[in-house]
Structure formats: C-alpha cells, structure tokens
C-alpha cells in the first residue's frame, strides 16, 4: 500500500491561471495536480488533490485524511487561512501533519494576510514560491516519511 498525501485547496483556487496572475501565476490547479501526481508516482506516494470554495468541505476532508491515516496533508486554505478557527481546530483534531502552502508570500502583502490560524498548528509552512511550493511540500512529506526532517 502506498502512502497517501491529500492536497486540499480552498476558496478561489479553482480560478488559478486567470485569477490575479501577477500574484498567483499562470499555472492552473489542474497543472499543479498533474505535476503532483507525477512527482508522487516517483516517490511512491498516492496524491489526492481537491479544491472547494466551502469551509466545511475542507474540514470534512481533514477528518477524512485522519481516518485514512494519510502521511500528510498539503493545505492551501486560501483566505480561510486568515479567518477560520474551525479549520485550525480540525487540524488539531486529527493526527496528520499539515504542510501549509501559499503561492504568494502573505507576509509581504496586506496586513490582514499576516495572521494565519493554520501556521501555529502546521508541521511547516512554504510560501512565496508559486506553484513550485506544492512540489516542495510533497518533497517535505516524503522526507518526513523517511524521518529526515
Ligand atoms: C493564498 C494567499 C491568501 O492570502 C489568499 O487569500 C489566497 C491565496 C496563496 O496561495 O497565496 O486565496 O493562500
């Protein structure tokens, strides 16, 4: 049985490619999913990529990751990062390491993006590296599996 990594994307990330490309780049979420599937295959990791504009879906999927004993969750919660205590609680409620990812670097943007409710309960954070940040996160998950982190 291969290890599972769930990649959960929050609101507005379905619009990647056309949404503020000067901030988020031209890569679509489908491109990212395809890249991660290939990378996962090379690493012996099954990658399950999802996106929802609804907070509750992200919470349900975190619970699912716990029930499926996922190796890790890669989470870009979009703007819910800055608002959702329910998401933070869900991360604490499951014993799966969560790697927080942002395409942009929220710390270098508006003040309201400087607060993350996810970071204090995340295993680590990768932000500011565009779509490549997801690849870095999957590598981090693979390294965690080998006890290298
Ligand atoms: C984002 C950063 C968030 O502040 C923003 O609300 C997003 C995308 C990112 O990937 O850079 O939707 O999570």
How would you explain this protein's 3D organization?
By secondary structure, the chain is an alpha/beta fold. It is built from five helices and five strands. A five-stranded parallel beta sheet has the order 2-1-3-4-5, with helices on both faces. Helix 2 packs parallel to helix 5 (132-145) and helix 3 (55-67) runs parallel beside helix 4 (85-93). The chain is globular. The relative contact order is 0.20. The model has no long low-confidence stretch (mean pLDDT 96). 1,3,4-trihydroxy-5-OXO-cyclohexanecarboxylic acid binds next to loops.
Which characteristics define this entry?
149 residues, single chain, binds 1,3,4-trihydroxy-5-OXO-cyclohexanecarboxylic acid, 5 helices, alpha/beta, 19% strand, five-stranded parallel sheet
Strands, count: 5
Bin the strand percentage: 15-25%
In helices, the fraction of residues equals 25-40%
Bound molecules: 1,3,4-trihydroxy-5-OXO-cyclohexanecarboxylic acid
Computed CA radius of gyration, to the nearest angstrom: 14 Å
Mean pLDDT equals 96
Overall SS class: alpha/beta
What's the N-to-C terminus distance? 23 Å
Report the major sheet: 5 strands, parallel
Give the number of helices: 5
Give start-end ranges of low-pLDDT stretches.
none
Q: In which order are the strands of the major sheet placed?
A: 2-1-3-4-5
Shape: globular
Q: What string, H for helix and E for strand, traces the elements in order?
A: EHHEHEHEEH
List the helices and strands and how they pair.
Blueprint: E1 3-9, H1 21-24, H2 29-43, E2 45-51, H3 55-67, E3 72-76, H4 85-93, E4 98-102, E5 124-127, H5 132-145
Helix pairs in contact: 2-5, 3-4
The structure holds 1,3,4-trihydroxy-5-OXO-cyclohexanecarboxylic acid (DQA).
């Amino acid at each position: 049985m291969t290890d599972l990594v769930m990649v959960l994307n929050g609101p507005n990330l379905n619009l990647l490619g056309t949404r503020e490309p000067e901030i988020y780049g031209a890569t679509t979420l489908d491109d990212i999913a395809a890249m991660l599937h290939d990378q996962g295959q090379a690493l012996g990791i099954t990658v399950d990529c999802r996106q929802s504009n609804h907070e509750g879906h992200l919470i349900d999927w975190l619970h699912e990751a716990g029930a499926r004993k996922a190796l890790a969750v890669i989470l870009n919660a979009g703007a819910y990062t800055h608002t959702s205590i329910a998401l933070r609680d869900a991360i604490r409620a499951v014993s799966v390491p969560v790697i927080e990812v942002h395409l942009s670097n929220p710390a270098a943007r508006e003040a309201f993006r400087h607060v993350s409710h996810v970071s204090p309960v995340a295993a680590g954070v990768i932000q500011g590296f565009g779509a490549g940040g997801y690849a870095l996160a999957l590598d981090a998950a693979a390294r965690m599996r080998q006890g290298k982190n």
